[in-house]
């Protein structure tokens, strides 16, 4: 199983860190958020080191559907209701700035960047779409409410954001990462204050950024309560349909569509990690029915960190930690989310005021309905008897037949059938 991006781009290789180093900023995690942050700091002449436990872009970044858009489902009505007009306006402005930064950088790289309209459709609730358009109008963005979309699904309409973009993320990052101070195969086993301990040395840093997908320190920030993980699946079909845009169902378990080089990328089958869902079987059944002459060329799956309120956690790791920052919880919108994180964190490190920081503050209120769902899930799975237990915090693991892996419903760690860790927050294999 290799994503289309991994099959079509070749990434530069970086050495393993051997020995002790001292730096101003240590970035842990070589996905898109870490690499973009390193790139912006590099541009400003900041001394930094980025370490990645395996190869760069081997996690969610290499398995995304790579839509660059500031339309994130129906988020604006949600933020407007929970946090007010100013917060919704700032969220939009921060993500528009991220979009513009991509336009600038993609103009300098060969990454198949294309401008496309983005649509969020609903199959059954037009009122939700109307409310999103009204919310957007209140914060100064005029979106279209379309009657139909050219998809083989019955919809009640779609909210359209014109002139968004799609690209090949690994072609983009292979160019961005070139020349950065990156070490691969360098696993941070432990933090002692602001010193990272790896297998072959220590890194002393004034400032540390955790860009590790799921934040890996449990003691601070309560991320084990504030995040859960969601799996989604993609198949790339030849001889299917040119949909000339990017489309996603407003419902979490719905389908998404976009093209790349003559292929249709059909996404969906999603579920909370460790739970049952449609996976590739659902997508293949849909393709057989709606695109009977198509052929599957690639298939892959991805894992997203979901925050309590749909807004990423970007900023200080916790109110009590100093010189320690985090970027996580991009809620399936990791392209603009990562760029927003890179811009915000680099401003914070450079001591520059960023007017959007308060919206993404990881220490904001956690009293949200999703908190109780996450809590109930944890209690239930901690009490479930099972021989296979997750080394993160001890929940019972569930067998995922489609991917032949052991998955944790609490916070989404995953392991191969032989116990090798695939996805964090667990930072080691299952005991033999
Ligand atoms: Fe936290 Fe499994 S991922 S207990």
**Structural class, judged by helices and strands?**
alpha+beta
In what range is the share of β-strand residues? Answer: 25-35%
The biggest beta sheet is recorded as:
9 strands, mixed
Rg on CA atoms, Å: 21 Å
The overall pLDDT, averaged over residues, is 96
The strand count comes to 21
Give the oligomer, counting copies of the same chain as homo and different chains as hetero: single chain
Number of helices: 11
Helicity range: 25-40%
Q: Any ligands, ions or cofactors bound here, and which?
A: FE2/S2 (inorganic) cluster
**Spans where pLDDT lies below 50 across 5 or more residues:** none
Outline:
globular
Straight-line N-to-C gap: 26 Å
């Amino acid at each position: 199983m290799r994503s289309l991006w991994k099959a079509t781009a070749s990434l530069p290789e970086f050495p393993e860190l051997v020995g002790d180093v001292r730096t101003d900023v240590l970035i842990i995690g070589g996905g898109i958020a870490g690499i973009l942050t390193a790139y912006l700091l590099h541009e400003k002449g900041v001394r930094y080191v980025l370490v990645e436990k395996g190869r760069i872009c081997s996690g969610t970044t290499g398995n995304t559907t790579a839509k660059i858009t500031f339309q994130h489902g129906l988020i604006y009505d949600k933020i407007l209701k929970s946090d007010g007009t100013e917060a919704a306006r700032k969220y939009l402005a921060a993500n528009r700035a991220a979009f513009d930064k991509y336009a600038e950088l993609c103009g300098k790289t060969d990454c198949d960047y294309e401008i496309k309209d983005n649509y969020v459709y609903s199959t059954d609730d037009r009122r939700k779409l109307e409310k999103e358009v009204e919310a957007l109008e209140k914060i100064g963005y005029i979106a279209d409410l379309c009657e139909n979309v050219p998809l083989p699904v019955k919809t009640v309409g779609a909210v359209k954001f014109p002139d968004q973009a799609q690209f090949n993320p690994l072609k983009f990052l292979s160019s961005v990462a070139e020349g950065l101070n990156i070490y691969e195969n360098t696993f941070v086993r432990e933090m002692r204050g602001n010193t990272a301990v790896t297998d072959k040395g220590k890194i002393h840093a004034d400032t540390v950024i955790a860009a590790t997908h799921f934040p890996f320190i449990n003691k601070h920030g309560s991320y084990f309560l504030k995040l859960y993980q969601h799996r989604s699946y993609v198949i790339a079909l030849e001889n299917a349909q040119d949909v000339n845009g990017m489309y996603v169902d407003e419902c979490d378990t719905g389908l998404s569509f976009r093209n790349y080089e003559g292929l249709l990328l059909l996404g969906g089958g999603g579920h909370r990690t460790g739970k049952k869902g449609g996976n590739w079987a659902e997508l293949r059944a849909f393709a057989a029915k709606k695109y009977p002459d198509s052929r599957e060329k690639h298939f892959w799956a991805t894992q997203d960190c979901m925050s309590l309120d749909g807004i990423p956690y970007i900023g200080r790791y916790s109110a009590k930690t100093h010189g320690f920052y985090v970027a996580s919880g991009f809620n399936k919108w990791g392209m603009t989310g990562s760029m927003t994180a890179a811009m915000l964190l680099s401003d914070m490190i450079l001591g520059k005021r960023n007017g959007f920081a308060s919206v993404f503050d990881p220490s904001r209120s956690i009293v949200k309905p999703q908190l109780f769902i996450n809590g109930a899930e944890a209690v239930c799975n901690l009490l479930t008897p099972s021989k296979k237990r997750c080394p993160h915090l001890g929940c019972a693991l569930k067998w995922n037949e489609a991917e032949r892996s052991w998955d944790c419903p609490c916070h989404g760690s995953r392991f191969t059938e032989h116990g090798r860790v695939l996805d964090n927050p667990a930072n080691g294999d299952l005991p033999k």
